[in-house]
Amino acid sequence: MTSLHFDATADELRVLQAENEDLLQAFDGYLIQLEQDGLSAALVQDMFRVAHTIKGSAASVGHIRMAQLTHAVESLLDRLRKGESDVTAPLLDCLFAALDVMKVLATEIQTGESVEADVDAHVRALEAWDAPLQHASMDPFRLVPPVPAQPNGDFAGIRPSTLAKPAGATHHILVQFDAGPWAAVRAFQTLLALSSVAEVLISRPTRAEVEAEQVNRRLEAWLRTDRLKDDIRKAVSDVFETTILSLDRLDFEQESPEERTSPPAPAAIPGPPAAGPDEAPASLVIPATDHLPQAPRNPTARPTATTVRIDVERLDALVNLVGELVIDRTRLLDLGRRLAAQVGDSRLLRDLNETALHLGRVTDELQAEVMKSRMLPISTVFGRLPRLVRDLAARQRKHVSLIVEGQDTEVDRSVIEEIGDPLIHLIRNAVDHGVESPEQRIAAGKPMTATIRLVAEHADNSIVVTVEDDGTGIDGDRVRRRAVERGLMTAEAASHLSNAQSVELIFASGLSTAVDVTDVSGRGVGLDIVRANVERLGGAVEVSTEVGRGSRFTLRLPLTLAILQALLVRVAGSIYALPLTSVTETLRMRRQDVQRIHGQEAVLLRGNVLPVIRLVSFFGAESASGDPVVDELGRPGENRFVWIVAVRIGDRHIGLAVDALLGEQEVVIKALGPLVGIIPGISSAAILGDGTVALIVDVPGLVQCIAEGRRGGKSHAHRSSQLVQPETA
Amino acid sequence: MTTILIADDAAFMRMRCGRLLTDNGFEVIEAENGREAVEKYTEHRPDVVLLDITMPELDGLEALKEIMSTDPQARVAMVTAVGQQQVVMEALKSGARDFVVKPFQPERILAAIHKLTA
């Protein structure tokens, strides 16, 4: 008994052991079925798959005798599958015998002890069916490398006749790569180099493993070539960072012509090996399994896995780290600018800037990749909607069919969490108000069953979801009348509205009625809240409709809520970030152009009145010196101009007066710490390149505060600068 | 004289590498993106191409494929950063002869070029 070493942890071996038992059990059943029912394509395919699975696992842990044997089984099954062999009693005997040996070999995994089994004889017997045809195959297992039965150097070598098929001699090569991240690529290069001078019969790690970067520092391969050893050496030495540890020609004694032309009879199944251990030439040096390089211990021991599951927290941590990198990049550029201001133009400085720019590009790519890894298909949200439609329609005795498209469209996790409520509302709205009763539909000459189409797609860095129904459409006149009834506007004002403007009123606060409240969302929120929430996230909701034909609501949200394009402004010494999605333009106005209209400051912009809100008085911030902020707009002489940022909330335009515009920047959103709590008008914060904190303005929230006559907390807004939470909530 | 085409979007890298090669007696042509690399290759048929992977317009891999389709004998070494192993393997499959890792040591670049021109 000799100890075996497998390239796998104890845990992995346990899994492999259990799996092998199952597979061998299944194979047993298939084989009996093959004997009873004869050949069927599906059955042979199943058997082939089992053998293939066992072979793959065996090869990956270094259970070479098992790999050899299963490969031979697989080859024979392949011939059956192709109709190149018939199912005969001797063939079945051969397979049964091989299966028994496989079962014995499987115990080696558990015991770690080499068992007495003449694998080679079985391989030969299996191959005998294979021999008449020469397969030129890419399968590296096509030819099995010689493997010692006893790792102590006492080889039960494979007989020359099974290995040394025409076209040259077999070689074994063992190479080592310099340590580091490029070992896998060097291994890949080595395999390519070897392929240019020889046929690579088998390699450890396999080519697939190499491509998956499952490479330790060594690679060994069995080759067949009629080229000289020096040619192989030359090819590999062209690969950098690669050392040939050994290269041996497996110089078997000359084959006898008889052996080559007459394969062993199929009937000669199990039995003592024709070639005894002493037939192996003394010069033959093949590393025993315990001396083989260790493959990296991948946790699953299944080289086929191409995806991994990652904890959301880890991804969030990654996003945060990338965020830090983005900050450093900005900071580096900033430093470069400041240095330039101090030392002027210099070669070093240009190099620094080049490097910073390059770093910036790499960081951008990194950021994009990380963000991509957080993407989820929107089907996670869409999934619950068909049931919702079904229930709603049933309750109202409507017939509705929901068509869903673009379920695979991917969005950031953060959006997935936010998009659900607005969507439910829009769907509910479509069933409740859009779709008519079956009687009405038939009367209108429409199909009895209404159709709601829910479509998700990507457009310009946004996710666009449309909810389209073929129902009654929205009657602008009715909405207008209702707005007047509810006192939202005068009849006079309403009469000036276009039809589209009237339809837009459905998003106005106070229009939805108790009739709108259904038990589905349980909250009866109106479209006004939907729009406000969506805009708070930097998105938009729009509607287009045609009376009698139906309505289409378009919901647009950014692909991620973790990063924001912002306009940075300064207000009383503090920096605020305004989401670019709400900014329509920036204006420089003369002070005297700011007028007071009905007690509200405003400017005239292209003939329209733009109400102006001073951020400084809203946030009640203090100036850097600690003095109470002087009303800057009112301060005579000093500021002849004021900067106004025009923002849009829904269809309302408002100007925000600020001290200075600092520029556009992409900022990574950081949640405000729990100690800060909710600050009216502020949604979150960002850390800028120079380390200062910018508060991100919640524009819709701010406007709502003003409408309700509230004000942002002075101390809150300032305190928050120190209490930004380092982690995204 | 042996001509080397350096394709890299970073002017700094082109400059540094170009200087090294000129000092060692090579003639240097520069391209600042993949598209330009393909054009310059077709125009000048350099002996060796050092092709950066991460480039605008046309990335290194695409540029490589175009170069290989115009000249299957092209001798291209990819210039890569750590983390681009998969792309490098893809490039090797597509005909790249070798690769150098940034930040590279001068002797490594020279050795790679000598091997490619041998």
According to CATH, what is the class of the largest domain in chain A?
Mainly Beta
Strands ordered across the widest β-sheet of chain A: 14-18-19-17-16-15
Shape of chain B: globular
Oligomer: heterodimer
Detailed description of the structure:
The complex is a heterodimer of chains A (729) and B (118). Chain A is α+β, with helices and mostly antiparallel strands and 729 residues long. Chain A folds into five domains: 10-134, HPT domain (Four Helix Bundle (Hemerythrin (Met), subunit A)), CATH 1.20.120; 160-251, Alpha-Beta Plaits (2-Layer Sandwich), CATH 3.30.70; 314-374; 377-474 and 513-558, Heat Shock Protein 90; 563-723, OB fold (Dihydrolipoamide Acetyltransferase, E2P). In chain A, 40% of the residues lie in helices and 21% in strands. Chain A contains 23 helices and 22 strands. Chain A has a six-stranded mixed sheet with strand order 14-18-19-17-16-15. Chain A has a five-stranded mixed sheet with strand order 6-8-9-11-10. In chain A, α1 (10-37) packs antiparallel against α2 and α3 packs antiparallel against α4. The longest helix of chain A is centred in the middle third of the chain and has 32 residues, at 312-343. The two termini of chain A are 59 Å apart. With 118 residues, chain B is α/β, with parallel strands linked by helices. Helix content of chain B is 47%, strand content 20%. Chain B contains five helices and five strands. Chain B has helices at residues 11-23, 34-44, 60-70, 85-93, 106-117, and strands at residues 3-7, 27-31, 48-52, 76-80, 98-101. Chain B has a five-stranded parallel sheet, sandwiched between helices. In chain B, α3 (60-70) links the parallel β3 (48-52) and β4 (76-80). In chain B, α2 (34-44) packs parallel to α3 (60-70). Chain B starts with a strand and ends with a helix.
